[in-house]
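Chapter summary example.
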Amino acid sequence: MNKQNINSLERAVIKKYQKKDKKRKVKMKISGASVKKLQKIIKEK
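The structure predicted for these 45 residues follows.
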């Protein structure tokens, strides 16, 4: 394999992981918000 092929493969892998990472962050934000809502409900009871 030449250097150009290796570089393009690296970029492809990095992009894949960035997409997965973004999805994880979005899920974390959603779960964080829902946890806060649950805590409010618990405090009210």
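To summarize the output: The radius of gyration is 20 Å.
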